[in-house]
Amino acid sequence: MNQSFLQSLKEIVLSNLENEQFGAEDLAKEMGLSRSQIHRKLQKINDKSITQFIREIRLDVAVDLLKREVGTASEIAYKVGFSSPAYFTKCFHEHFGYTPGEAKYSISTSENSPDEDNSADGTTIVPIHGSKKEAHRGNYCKLTTIMFSDICGYTAIMEESEKEAILLLKRNRELHQSIIALHDGVLIKENGDVIVASFDAPTDAVRCAQQIINTAKEEENLKLHIGIHLGEIHFIDGDIFGDGVNVASRLEQLAKPNQILVSDPVHKNIKNKHGIRSTFIAEKHLKNVDEPVRIYSVEVEDHSSYHNQKEKESTAELTKSILYKRVLISVASLVAIALVIVFYLKPWSKAESPVDNDPTNTTNTEKVYSIAVLPFKDMSPDQDQEYLGDGIAEEIMNQLFKVNGLKVIARTSSFSFKGKDTDIKTIGELLGVKMVLEGSV
Questions:
Q1: C or N terminus of the chain, fewer CB within 10 Å?
Q2: pLDDT score at 256
Q3: What is the torsional sign of CA 344, 347, 348, 353?
Q4: CA-CA distance, 226 to 250, in Å (whole number)?
Q5: What is the pLDDT of residues 45-81, one digit of tens each?
Q6: Exposed, middle or buried: residue 389 (CB in 10 Å: 0-12, 13-18, 19+)?
Q7: Pairing of strands 224-236, 259-263
Q8: Taking a C-beta distance cutoff of 8 angstroms, is the pair 133, 186 a contact?
Q9: DSSP secondary-structure letter at 122?
Q10: CA distance 211 to 308
């Protein structure tokens, strides 16, 4: 029974997987139960909240997609209903103990022993800074996208406060590690405040740089220069060398605070990609580089306005939900109070026969002191207020349940007449009650 219930919930979540707005209220509505009913049942079965249950299904699907390599970690984040890749990474790491970027690597090498040398070129694999995403050691050359990043004015920050500079360096390192892993990159090395990473695809490198700068804007005193170049890179014992490395390093040094500069090979790969816009800056001779390099600046969109809008929308939804609940409780309380007054005044007692008033006649007494609350009819023009009518009826029942001596027919029985053209008198007789409450919204 419990497995059937959980399977029904899971199927509904999976059918709404890409809908980032799908939440507990939506799940309850599709199940035809109240949110509190589902919450209590989930707590009893596996001690989880509805939100946690939905999130874990999204994450389980994400792992499967990562195994099948159907896209980057960012693309999969959106595919399973996360509006923020950074939040997806956080939830993923909390649930599985490693990042999505690390998952792709660990899955593909899970059958290999960590002590074995399985590479064709005799290279071994060693972890960098505790990451499961790893860099090759050995001597080989590879066409790679290299990203250089450093903190603006770090020397001045160090001179002003060594403690603050060290804390800033730590925050910058953590930020880079998580976001580089999210975009399938490899952190090659750190040199003070300079961080060097490699990517198989220029698009991943640029999107990573954009996210790093946008995230860094939320940190105090953390402004970055970033340079990216695509070229042949020599990997020698875990370090990198060659003109490609020099170009990326020089571009980073030329970049202004919070600016991303890329070379022409990178620009050619990203110029038609959605969400990436680059502008030609100049063609320059860079130090220790033979040929002149065409330089482009990548636009970094300020997502703060987007996040502020999302926050406003979220706040508005929360306010709406709170107001809805307050109105629901207020209306239900007023109706319940009116019913209690009527109940204690007993206006029907004058009209009842001596048999009805006979305290020994328990059948009639129970019938007099009983009530059924029917679901309120949806009379709105668009017929989209059914949930409100049901909510008011449920809240009235909750209030009436508190009245001593008053029998309130359970929701299952009273709601069984929903949508049926049965007159009130017949409903009262079928349910065995003296009073039947109906209404509309």
A1: N
A2: 93
A3: positive
A4: 10
A5: 888 888 889 999 999 888 888 877 767 777 788 888 8
A6: buried
A7: parallel
A8: yes
A9: S
A10: 17
Give the model's pLDDT for residue 305: 43
232, β-bridge pairs: 143
For the stretch 197-207, what's the b/e string if a residue is b when 16 or more beta carbons lie within 10 angstroms of its beta carbon?
bbbebbbbbbb
What is the per-residue pLDDT for 319? 56
Q: Side chain identity at 178, as an amino acid letter?
A: S
Any long-range contacts for 72-77 (C-beta under 8 Å, 24+ apart)? Answer: 72/183, 72/184, 72/204, 73/99, 73/100, 73/101, 73/104, 73/181, 73/182, 73/183, 73/184, 74/182, 74/183, 74/207, 76/100
The one-letter code for the residue type at 82 is F
Residue 304's pLDDT is 44
Contact criterion met (CB below 8 Å) for 438 and 374: yes
Supply the pLDDT for residue 4.
Answer: 82
Q: Which residues on neighbouring strands pair with residue 229, listed in sequence order? A: 146
pTM: 0.44
User: In sequence order, what are the residues at sequence separation of 6 or more whose Cβ sits closer than 8 angstroms to the Cβ of residue 210?
Assistant: 260, 276, 298, 300, 301
DSSP string, 23-56: -HHHHHHHHTS-HHHHHHHHHHHHS--HHHHHHH
Segments in the chain below pLDDT 50: 105-133, 303-308, 310, 345, 347-367
Distance, in Å, from the CA atom of 272 to the CA atom of 268, rounded to the nearest integer, reads 8
Strands 293-298 and 278-284, how do they pair?
A: antiparallel
